[in-house]
Amino acid sequence: MAELHLDPGTLIRLIGRYQELRNRGGMGSMLYRVTPGQRIDALQIYATVCAAGAVPDGDQREFWLSHLRPVLAETREAAELLKEAFADIGKPETPPLKQRIAAASVATMTKLRRWPSASTLAAVGTALLLGAVILWLSLTAQSPQRQAASVDTTDASVPAGNGAQSALPDAGLKPRYERFLKLTLVAAARYGNEITPYALAAALCGAAPELGPPSYVLAEMMRVYPIDPANSIPHSALGAMALRHYAAVAAAQSAGASLTAFDDYIMDDWQISPDPAIDSAAWLRDFQIATNPLPPATLARETWPSWLRYLPLLVLLPGSVFAFWGNSNKRREAAAEALRRTRVAHATFRRAEAGAWGTSRILQSFAALPPLPSASQTARRLMRLREPLPGSRLDLPRSVRASLASAGDVVTVMRDGSRAVDIVVLVHRRHRHDHERARVLRLLDALSRSGVSLTAYDYAPDPRTLTATSRADALNPRGRLRTLDLRGLRELHGDSLLVIVSDGDELIDPFSQQAHPFLATELASWRRRMLLTPVPRGEWGEREFRLAAAFDAPIGRATMAGLGDLALGLAPDEVQSGPRRALDQAMRKAGLLDRIATWSLLAGTLLAPEETVPRPPSIERLGLSLLQDLAPPDPEQKALIEDLETWLGHGFFWLAACGVYPTLRVDLTLWLGARLHRYGHPANPIIFSEELFARLCLLPWLRVCHMPDWLRTATFNALSDREKKMLRDVIDELAAANAGESGEVRLGLQVWQADWRGQPLAPDNVMIAFKSDAAPWDRLRQEEATAASDAQRTWLMRGLGRLVLIAAWAGVAVWLMPAFGAAPLPNGAWWPVLGFGAATLAWFGTAFVVERIRLWRRKHAEAAADAAPPASAAPAFK
């Protein structure tokens, strides 16, 4: 491996390679990118070290790895990838040509979302074939005159008397005369020996462009040997002599010599060199004694091949593919239709495959959820949070006492006033369907309906980038967003109480494990603030303590009971709250561990009782590998499933049900929780509960809305037969779209059914399929065989009809093709063919554009219908 000497260009390539390795390694969406700040820090370190002159000679990998690892690598896995990037950057930058071609081909196939339709393939193939034929004809096909002109075009030199090469103008006149005489005789034979001087002049000028315009050559011909230019040259000795003189005129014009230099050749045919292909003397004798037109002479090298006119028949090859395209699709469709007719259909969901086709279907239902417990009690506690205001009414007793104390002066004292405080809540959002965000917004919506003045904002990736939100945003597609920063938040809600709802991962620097500085600086204008976290209190530790210290505010739980603790944590400064006193007392301790222990103990005794037990240790141990599609080892999978069953209890059935649909949706999760019963028994209560929903939202898959296939399979296989049967019935109810319409949460899922006449699907679309085992096997086989036979017959007749139309099209093209054996072709012989080809291409182009417009309109209409929010969805907050 060559030595590495880092320069700015190599550093940029190193960071790019490092980012590719992180992306390939399956890191989370927030970790696989190298941020702009990290890039700037790396360049600053490079510039500083180079300016100090501390760069060693030789291989610099270990030196730069030690300096750049703290800036670019957040985790141990990232550090290994950075080391691998340093190893890769020293390899040759340009791979071999074969490797580049293979890599480009693989990348192109990966990016290809679907194969083009059969009509598109046929249109493109026909256009390429026609273009190739026209180009080949224009480059290779030549008229007979041009081919004869290519025969011996070089002028042979005539040796002089002294043995030297002659430089006289008449040198090489004999080969030139022989050439034009042959051209003259071939042209006469092409016209059946009924050629006019006018046609002969045109033929000679076409074969030898150096002669100039045909009118000039014709004038010279008439001056030398005048006969009627519009009539055929007579078949006599006079006509044969005219042909000799006309050939001499053309040779003289080509050589720039006088006509007298060719007198000897004109009068003596025996001086012409013999040629087995064209015997000039014999042809001249035949010409002057001919009484009937001679048959056209055929010279293989001077004519176009006769098979060229049948080239349009090659379109039958791609036409056959187009005509019989869709055999398997039609048969599968027929078999699926037979299943639907003869079986009791059970619905299953799966991700679409690239290149699949289908028709859209919207699954709609409603989730009837029980009301939130203790919402009104929590609302009453929060509404007792008030702030003093100057009153507008006179306090008479206090005014009298103040007047007496002032020795006779009248003093008026107003009554003290107060007003309810406004609370602004900032909720961390990892995904549009982030379940934890939706759960918090649902709690806030219940408090807002009970009279609490609340305003909610989303933020991502940190509280300095805010987006206005409402309850409807948690369950429906987002409309037009309204974003602002902390300065705008201070202008709108400077007098409000600030509450941040987050687990704190985005508020902690991953390198130093310290809170970001903006928590203490940019949020200092809100004197009364608090942080709510969904993390169970049993998992609190150094991260939560550092957040509380940097935020200078108490921390509570993001539950309905934890929202009630806002009345305690946001108490006025003059009546310091218990959580604040706990933080102050912990900060007086000397050691970090003592501070954390004191703070955890005091905060736990002051806040509401904890109901959620800590998450299983396997979730923390596996970390980011839980979100990867690459399955962990079987022992770790088994331990994870066992921990989830123990931690969730009957809620494990709910988690497995969420994995039936390929993508996690908040509305679907709530709908399943309202339909499923505990342990799959209909007599048990429904599985939904606020405490269990809060546990589910703590799982990483419901935060990023992605459950890998290996986890979906493992959770479903862990269910009992009764749970699987209930889950199948619930999915059938969803697919039948006949669920009850009571409740608040609307469900609208766009799924696709396989249909070769539908639209192309992307790999992330969801398809619905039907399975059954209720029909008798013999009847099912008979129905499938009948449907397949009918589909094959329909496919065959349709393909034959298409092939007949394509063959008729090719036959018309062959009929319009000119006869190549009669070359040179007259002017306009190609116009019918070119017009027919242009009309065909225009028809294919018009059909393609119309089809694209039709598909675009259908997609646009379906997207607009799917994105339209329900009429009953109203903002929950002001």
Quickly describe the structure.
This protein is an alpha/beta fold and 878 residues long. The protein is 51% helix and 9% strand.
Counted beta strands: 14
Main structural class: alpha/beta
Largest β-sheet summary? 7 strands, mixed
Radius of gyration: 45 Å
**Unreliable stretches, pLDDT < 50, 5 or more residues?**
141-170, 292-302, 471-479, 739-744, 772-778, 865-878
In round numbers, the mean pLDDT is: 75
Taken from the alpha-carbon principal axes, the silhouette is: elongated
From the N-terminal CA to the C-terminal CA, the straight-line distance is 64 Å
Strand order of the largest sheet: 8-7-6-5-9-10-11
Number of helices: 35
Proportion in helices: 40-55%
Instruction: Bin the strand percentage.
Output: 5-15%
Structure, explained:
The relative contact order is 0.10. The C terminus is likely disordered. The protein is elongated. Strands 8-7-6-5-9-10-11 form a seven-stranded mixed sheet. The chain is 51% helix and 9% strand. It has 878 residues and is of the alpha/beta class. The protein contains 35 helices and 14 strands. β9, α20 and β10 form a beta-alpha-beta unit.
